[in-house]
Amino acid sequence: QVQLVESGGGLVQAGGSLRLSCAASGRTFSTYAMGWFRQAPGKEREFVAAIRWSGGSTLYQDSVKGRFTISRDNAKNTLYLQMNSLNSEDTAVYYCAARKYSPVVPDLKREYEYDYWGQGTRVAVSS
């Protein structure tokens, strides 16, 4: 069982930056692939970014490429999302998610691939 707690959300002006964190419980954080998803008001939850177990491979939604960076610190059991050049379309509740290791390579852009979810942290970008 893994518990995930997001933090770092808030209100920021367009063009600004925020860094989200996701603290994971347990001793096996390094064996989980991790992802960030977001849900904007009135919209379905969507994939933002993901990072594989070793941290050597990352995936991004096209709209955040070059602006967002996902990273992990396995020693601290923490996942990060550095968000730069924020705009109003980034306004959403951001969720982190964890996927247990498996020999089958998962599609980390799909919600159903993940085993655990956090409660979310809200990001609001004012224009």
Descriptive report:
There is one protein chain. The N and C termini lie far apart (40 Å). The chain is globular. Strands 2, 4, 5, 6, 9, 10 and 11 form a 7-stranded mixed sheet that branches. The chain has no helices and 11 strands. Helix content is 0%, strand content 48%. The protein is mostly beta strands. The relative contact order is 0.31.
Task: From the structure above, extract its key features.
127 residues, mainly beta, 4-stranded antiparallel β-sheet
Mean pLDDT, all residues: 95
Return the structural class. mainly beta
User: How many H/I helices?
Assistant: 0
Proportion of helical residues: under 10%
Layout of secondary structure:
Elements: E1 4-7, E2 10-13, E3 18-24, E4 32-39, E5 46-51, E6 58-60, E7 68-73, E8 78-83, E9 92-100, E10 116-117, E11 121-126
Parallel strand pairs: 2-11
Antiparallel strand pairs: 1-3, 3-8, 4-5, 4-9, 5-6, 7-8, 9-10, 9-11
Task: Kindly summarize this structure in a few lines.
The protein is mostly beta strands and 127 residues long.
